[in-house]
Specification:
- The complex is a heterodimer of chains A (303) and B (327).
- By secondary structure, chain A is of the alpha/beta class.
- Chain A has 11 helices and 10 strands.
- Chain A has a 5-stranded parallel beta sheet, sandwiched between helices. Chain A has a 3-stranded antiparallel beta sheet with strand order 3-4-10.
- In chain A, strand 3 (147-148) and strand 4 form a beta hairpin.
- Chain A is globular and about 95 Å long.
- Mean pLDDT of chain A is 93; it is low at 43-47.
- Chain B has 327 residues and is of the alpha/beta class.
- Chain B has one domain (24-317): Aldolase class I (TIM Barrel, Alpha-Beta Barrel), CATH 3.20.20.70.
- Chain B has helices spanning 19-27, 34-44, 51-63, 76-87, 109-118, 140-152, 164-168, 172-185, 202-205, 208-221, 239-256, 271-284, 302-315, and strands at residues 65-68, 101-105, 125-130, 157-161, 195-199, 225-227, 261-263, 297-299.
- Chain B is globular.
- The chains are: A alpha/beta (303), B alpha/beta (327).
- At the A-B interface, helix 2 of A face loops of B.
- Chain B: Pathway: Carbohydrate degradation; 2-deoxy-D-ribose 1-phosphate degradation; D-glyceraldehyde 3-phosphate and acetaldehyde from 2-deoxy-alpha-D-ribose 1-phosphate: step 2/2.
- Chain B: Belongs to the DeoC/FbaB aldolase family. DeoC type 2 subfamily.
- Chain B: Keywords: Lyase, Schiff base.
- Chain B: InterPro entries: Aldolase_TIM, DeoC, DeoC/FbaB/LacD_aldolase.
């Protein structure tokens, strides 16, 4: 028995929500699914019964995907039109916000991936560092992949990289935070806008990332985060006529083949999944250049 | 048209005999329960219309559109492009019906008539806004000349604005007589008459009671259609203010046997919105009004959204703005 006058404090549970167009809506369908800790992932048949319950996450529907694409399309003009320097500053600001929330993300990553406290902290640090690394690339990628081409005539011939547009990203299933940052940051660093499908079993770090993005000068709609069944959300995204590229990292081989076929209809750029990608390794620039189109201009040299 | 056989005012007490008679008639109309009205309009907006019903609704909505361009920057080229689009909204799909009418300023009527004919749109009407649209602030002689010129240029339909100043200051008979005068100006040389739509500008009438009074006033004066707004002010067609007008039209036919059309305009941009209005028409008025002859949408960007939804239904893939025209 407690002494009279003292009460036990009830902790406040967080409602995880989608992040679409700079707002935090629930799924249009009203559905949620149970997210369990990492022991659930190893349970028989991948059911919901193996691990301890962590939270209910929204189970996004194809209509949420459609709304996210509309929001992403609206944001393209502003984000791709911003100067590369400005985009870099905004992304660096995201890293600043992440830094202040390292403990929260470390806890969520530890729950999701079954890592020790120290290991999950190291993963979050690596993710923040990766974000800063990509922030630095925004105003340098044009020098690396663009340039002045030598031509046999009295012309300047200049190639510049331009963003592809709206990119759907299937976040990796095995790395809920570092993997997510590694696939998302290059997409927006190059001036694209993204519709991200978070890891199906471990969407909580991704949904929390939405809260960071919302408070760090990233315009609404530049990043849209959905949680739910990857196959269910990815199918309409791959077929969507207003999506310009799709990153299939989080899709299994069978699903990836199906999605690639659907994506062919409007000639989307497709990035195929690589098996067993090491998220701690140096990522190189391939994820940046995957979402860039080269524009080449001929200009007469004045005489 | 059969609805014009009996002049409506002969079936009701002679309300237009004096300002006082008209005023007491309009103020004798029952008041609108605003809360109930808005709840009813919101409830009707929650119906789920799917698959074949949705396909039917989308095609019906396309055929009801008055495709509109009313900008100071309108050019003959823009009007021609709009006419071509109205006659064949989706060039890649011939099963898409044409729109009901092209709505332009009076000076563009001749251009629109020619462009519609050139595009082969035999059923597509040309509507002209007249009477000093959108404010309606001009002398009556100017308004009548404006109307007569548009009719002479070949307009099939005239969208007039009422004098809101007169209405709000209680000079109902002035408004009544002006509608009658404009209707007279709609008569062509051969004795036929352009269809008259009367625009209230609901956003400026302030109350639902005013909208109901204005509906009855316009119907008694001989309007063929009543239209919510010009699209030029902050508040345009809303489900609730359109519902007031639908109810007025329903009650008017019950009292006089004369059927009047309704046209919500402004602010209807998505297929979902359009379907909500169709549900409201069906539930309030029934099948009789579910045709372009009796119900119209005044819109421009709505058409693109309807076309995108139609493409989604036929292909199963979400479409995008790259696959419809920029206008």
């Amino acid at each position: 028995m407690k002494a009279p006058g003292t009460t036990t404090r009830l902790s406040v549970q967080k409602t995880y929500k989608l992040y679409v167009g700079g707002k935090f809506p629930r799924s249009e369908s009203g559905r949620v699914y149970e997210v369990t800790d990492s022991r659930g992932a190893k349970g028989s048949g991948g059911g919901q019964d193996g691990g301890a319950w962590l939270a209910n996450a929204p189970l996004a529907s194809r209509k949420d995907a459609r709304d996210a694409v509309v929001a992403a399309r609206k944001a393209v003009a502003g984000w791709s039109g911003a100067t590369a320097y400005n985009r870099g500053q905004v992304l660096y600001r995201v890293a600043e916000m992440l830094e202040g929330r390292r403990e929260q993300f470390a806890r969520e990553v530890a729950d999701a991936e079954g890592l020790s406290k120290a290991k999950s902290a190291a993963v979050v640090d690596a993710a923040v560092d990766r974000w800063v690394w990509y922030a630095g690339w925004t105003d340098k990628i044009a020098q690396v992949v663009g340039g002045a081409n030598p031509v046999a005539g009295p012309y300047f011939n200049l190639s510049t990289p331009e963003p592809t547009g709206v990119v759907a990203v299937l976040a990796p299933q095995d790395s809920s935070f570092l993997g997510l940052v590694s696939v998302l940051a290059p997409v927006i660093a190059t001036g694209n806008t993204a519709v991200v499908v978070a890891a199906e079993r471990a969407p909580l770090p991704a949904l929390s990332l939405g809260e960071v993005l919302a408070t760090s000068d990233v315009p609404g709609g530049v990043v849209n985060l959905l949680s739910g069944r990857t196959a269910e959300i990815a199918t309409p995204l791959a077929a969507h006529q207003d999506v310009n590229g799709i990153d299939l990292t989080g899709a299994g081989p069978e699903l990836a083949a199906e999605l690639e076929a659907a994506a062919a209809d409007n000639l989307k750029r497709v990035r195929r999944p690589a098996l067993g990608e090491d998220w701690t390794a140096d990522p190189g620039t391939s994820r940046l250049t995957a979402w860039l189109e080269t524009k080449t201009v001929w200009h007469p040299i004045g005489v | 048209m059969s609805s014009e056989v009996v002049p409506p005012s002969t079936l009701l007490p002679d309300v237009s005999s004096s300002p006082r008679a008209l005023r007491s008639y309009l103020h004798g109309l029952p008041g609108v329960d605003a809360v109930g009205l808005e709840a009813r309009a919101a409830a009707l907006g929650t119906r789920s219309i799917k698959t074949t019903a949705k396909a039917y609704a989308i095609d019906l909505a396309i055929s009801m559109i008055d495709l509109t361009t009313l900008e100071g920057a309108d050019t003959a080229g823009k009007v021609r492009a709009l006419c071509a689009k109205g006659v064949r909204p989706d060039p890649a799909d011939r099963s898409v019906p044409p729109v009901a009418a092209i709505c332009v300023y009076g000076d563009m009527v001749a251009v629109a008539k020619e462009a519609v004919a050139a595009a082969g749109g035999t059923d597509v009407h040309v509507a002209a806004v007249a009477t000093a649209f959108p404010s309606g602030r001009a002398a009556r002689s100017v308004k009548l000349a404006d109307t007569a010129e548009a009719v002479a240029a070949g307009a099939d339909e005239i969208d007039m604005v009422i004098d809101r100043g007169a209405f709000l200051s209680g000079r109902y008979l002035d408004v009544f007589e002006e509608i009658q005068a404009v209707k007279a100006a709609c008569t062509r040389e051969d004795g036929s008459r352009a269809h008259l739509k009367v625009i209230f500008e609901n956003g400026e009438l302030s109350t639902y009671d005013n909208i109901r009074r204005c509906s009855w006033l316009a119907m008694l004066a001989g309007a063929d259609f009543i239209k919510t707004s010009t699209g030029k002010v902050g508040v345009n067609a809303t489900p609730a203010n359109t519902l007031v007008m639908l109810e007025a039209v329903r009650d008017f036919r019950r009292a006089t046997g004369v059927q009047i059309g309704v046209k919500p305009a402004g602010g209807i941009r998505t297929a979902k919105d359009a379907v909500k209005y169709l549900v409201m028409v069906n539930e309030t008025l029934g099948d009789d009004w579910l045709s372009p002859e009796w119900f119209r949408f005044g819109a421009s960007s709505l058409l693109n959204d309807l076309l995108m939804q139609r493409q989604k239904l036929s292909t199963g893939r979400y479409s995008g703005p790259d696959y419809v025209t920029v206008d």
